[in-house]
Amino acid sequence: MKKLHIIILVFIAASIAVLISFMGNLSTYETIASARQKAGKIVTITAKMDNSQPIDYDPVKNPNYCSFHITDTLGNKARAIYYGEKPYDMEKAERITFKGKMNGDVFEIAPHGIMLKCPSKYKDDPNVAKKNLTQN
What we know:
Layout: H1 3-23, E1 29-30, H2 32-37, E2 43-49, E3 66-72, E4 77-82, E5 96-103, E6 106-116, H3 119-122, H4 126-135
């Protein structure tokens, strides 16, 4: 074999190894029911806070423990535990993306596994809407 062929084969093998290493970090969006079936596996869930249930967070007692209830788009509910500081205005967010794993009936959120979507950012300004209507 020529040196060029050997170099190309080594490059292809290295590329395949890099792609396989990235495959371990891929996750899909799941529902709470499908996350229960994949217990112990890291999944991503889009849900909202169940404001009818209390949030258990006492920063004086333990600032790195926050427990609350979530509801996904299909209406499935679960208790969630986040071992970190409770994000500011988490109760006001319309949808929250959680990354973590199911442990029994509890969804344990990974460190830095909460991504809030700001509700005010996606709401229309009524004054701008009126102005657009009068112009059209």
